[in-house]
Amino acid sequence: MHKGQSAMEYLMTYGWAILIVIVISAVLVYYGLFKPPVGKSINGFGSVMPLDSEYTAAGNLSLFLENRVGDIIKIIAVSADDGSGSVTLTGTSGMNKTVSVSGRTWVMGTTGVAGSQGDGFALRVVITYDRGGTDLTTSGTVTGTRS
Known about the structure:
Blueprint: H1 2-30, E1 41-44, E2 48-55, E3 60-67, E4 73-81, E5 86-88, E6 90-93, E7 98-99, E8 104-110, E9 120-131, E10 134-145
Antiparallel strand pairs: 1-10, 2-3, 3-8, 4-5, 4-7, 4-9, 6-8, 9-10
């Protein structure tokens, strides 16, 4: 009987200690003490591929796009969704610009979603382009840290 009680007390003591460590860690993460670094990455997409991106604290998004379609295209629209709702870039330069086969171009505009410099972001980006009179889309995820 004493062995069982001793084992139970041992497990309870360590159980409470582990629970306290988990709760303290969760509070520290919640308040931002541990901000994991967010590396820049571009995933998904297909025929029109972002090679580089920049997203500023003011909400300005720049994408360096490469035409991998195999035909001349025209960029029509770019929209971004940070999880709070999709926003079509406004004040965009690079739209309605013809991009040659394997050509590259910058597309810049604002999402209107401000943040803080150094904040991590993950944007679902949809690029609409015209190929020979047909509107097509490609999409993917762009992540990084706001500049």
